[in-house]
Amino acid sequence: MGTALKVLKLLDSFSLQQPELGLSQIARMNQINKATALRYLTNLADYGMVEQDPQSKLYSIGTAPLRLANLREAAKPRLTAARIVMKAQVLKVHETMHMSLLKSDQLQTTLVEETQAHSVRISIGTSEILPLHATASGIVSLAFGPRNLLQHVLDGSLPTYSEHTLTNPDRLMDLVDETLHKGWCESVSGYETGVHGFAAPIFGEEQTAIGAIACVIPQPRVTSDLRSAVLDALSIASKEITSVYGGQFPANYRLNQLQTS
Amino acid sequence: MGTALKVLKLLDSFSLQQPELGLSQIARMNQINKATALRYLTNLADYGMVEQDPQSKLYSIGTAPLRLANLREAAKPRLTAARIVMKAQVLKVHETMHMSLLKSDQLQTTLVEETQAHSVRISIGTSEILPLHATASGIVSLAFGPRNLLQHVLDGSLPTYSEHTLTNPDRLMDLVDETLHKGWCESVSGYETGVHGFAAPIFGEEQTAIGAIACVIPQPRVTSDLRSAVLDALSIASKEITSVYGGQFPANYRLNQLQTS
């Protein structure tokens, strides 16, 4: 690993939990001596990647990333970048994928990338509101999204969309727990009969899901091979789109847990 | 300059005008050979600071800055950081400073940092709306802000606040031109008699002013020494707060032109 990359990796020392760090702490976290850590930090500070508080002497992320983030957003807006990620995965699994984002307590389909490989495929409109208790994307949002979302859904009614819709609050909470544990969700015919959905979370800045990336497949086509290919694709898309949104994965969310179902 | 800083400086090659660049172009812009440029870019790409389009092979800013920018914002929100910048400058010039931000076509005082050094000082409320044609902050916003703002002001009425308020559209346009050229604005008693105001722009992502940083002084205290100290302070504050907002200075705006009035 080149020096420059080692210097950049120092930035990984900072987190929401530890936004400010002292020199010794950074040296220890990166298993380097203090002189080296200081040299690296000075390089980062010279570019504005980190800054040091003149009083406390603690380091934190600087302002250069703000400028670069704005440049990035102007050049490659998030939705365009997310679409590119989805296109690549749809080409691998040959099934329709969609991305949905939470707007306050509603989950809204924002991007749809239809497969062109099958004439029988799931067609979804963008801006469609997905019921939180009846779709894989919804369950994922309940599991990883804002804390009060699940309570809000449980406080409301749980409408029936098909004979498989989960309308029992206890069973819904069980599925949310299972999803929290697995990192992804599978929903069979919960919203529409014959539609098999898989979804994984997209995380935002606060390590909270801001939405979900899903793959929807006509039931008869789901095989165990396709299932594992889809989980692979969702794992990659979840990671890359979280990155596109500048999001942070929760510490206990294992990116590869999707595959080890 | 260490290698790591040289690697980071490569990020300066990207701009709103040139968000995507090829290897040769980057090498040329940084006066290094292509092998070195490739090595540097690979380091940056490994951390996600840049990314390469698989088809066009062009490089652009990656997604790592988005994540870092969000971390920064969570740890040090913009307003807090801007206030720290202002405090440092107020301690130098011993006069009240305020920062105002444009909300659509209104300029609103957002932060006020009063000097404690004088009992006679300017007191301003936050959330006060500043008239665009009658304050130094307003003129700066007209000069460097969104294109349609000046026309909008000229289309409306130009109310009188004091006997020195500029109400003649031609004279207003002259002052805007002069401000564009100088990079800052001075307004004497335009809004309130006896108040001498100096202001410099704060730029946002699109190289357009999102607001202004100003220093307001009771008229009798303005000397040529204080004037030049204030312009120094505004120059620093303008640069640092633009950075706090992730903004970009227009290519033709010289940061130090404030001093060379």
Automatic annotation (TrEMBL), chains A, B:
<dbReference type="GO" id="GO:0003677">
    <property type="term" value="F:DNA binding"/>
</dbReference>
<dbReference type="InterPro" id="IPR014757">
    <property type="entry name" value="Tscrpt_reg_IclR_C"/>
</dbReference>
<dbReference type="Pfam" id="PF09339">
    <property type="entry name" value="HTH_IclR"/>
</dbReference>
<dbReference type="InterPro" id="IPR050707">
    <property type="entry name" value="HTH_MetabolicPath_Reg"/>
</dbReference>
<dbReference type="Pfam" id="PF01614">
    <property type="entry name" value="IclR_C"/>
</dbReference>
<dbReference type="GO" id="GO:0003700">
    <property type="term" value="F:DNA-binding transcription factor activity"/>
</dbReference>
<keyword id="KW-0804">Transcription</keyword>
<dbReference type="InterPro" id="IPR036390">
    <property type="entry name" value="WH_DNA-bd_sf"/>
</dbReference>
<feature type="domain" description="IclR-ED">
    <location>
        <begin position="57"/>
        <end position="247"/>
    </location>
</feature>
<feature type="domain" description="HTH iclR-type">
    <location>
        <begin position="1"/>
        <end position="63"/>
    </location>
</feature>
<keyword id="KW-0805">Transcription regulation</keyword>
<protein>
    <submittedName>
        <fullName>IclR family transcriptional regulator</fullName>
    </submittedName>
</protein>
<dbReference type="InterPro" id="IPR005471">
    <property type="entry name" value="Tscrpt_reg_IclR_N"/>
</dbReference>
<dbReference type="InterPro" id="IPR029016">
    <property type="entry name" value="GAF-like_dom_sf"/>
</dbReference>
<dbReference type="InterPro" id="IPR036388">
    <property type="entry name" value="WH-like_DNA-bd_sf"/>
</dbReference>
<dbReference type="GO" id="GO:0045892">
    <property type="term" value="P:negative regulation of DNA-templated transcription"/>
</dbReference>
<keyword id="KW-0238">DNA-binding</keyword>
